[in-house]
Amino acid sequence: MHPKLFEFDLFGFNIPIYSYGVMIMLGAITAYLYIAYHAKKELGIEAVKVQALVRLIIFTAFVGGKLLFYLENPSLF
């Protein structure tokens, strides 16, 4: 697998798109679609509630990941 899938320029900034990030995104989207389908089919839960849960999980994972990074590497800051 290639580390960088491609790069593009936006307003003079070179922006790389990494394959690891794309795979994480594809996994998250696939998990959301799977959960939304089965929550509606088996439990009768509305899609709006599943979307709210997924947003909360993504936000919490981002904040928790950044917090753990800063706590593990305090000498960098």
Provide a brief overview of the structure:
It contains 2 helices and 2 strands, in the order E-E-H-H. It is of the alpha+beta class. The protein has one domain.
Question: What does this protein structure show overall?
Answer:
With 77 residues, the chain is an alpha+beta fold. It has one domain. The chain has helices spanning 19-43, 47-72; strands at residues 4-10, 13-18. The longest helix is centred in the C-terminal third of the chain and has 26 residues, at 47-72. The mean pLDDT is 90.
Order of helices and strands: EEHH
Mean pLDDT: 90
Q: Give unreliable regions as ranges.
A: none
Q: Can you list the strand order of the major beta sheet?
A: 1-2
Q: Helix segment count?
A: 2
- Count the E strands: 2
Number of domains: 1
Tell me what portion of residues adopts beta-strand conformation: 15-25%
Structural class computed from helices and strand pairing: alpha+beta
| Rg measurement, Å | 17 Å
The outline comes out as extended
Q: Report the biggest beta sheet as strand number plus sense, adding barrel if it closes.
A: 2 strands, antiparallel
- Termini separation comes to 32 Å
Work out the helicity level: 55-70%
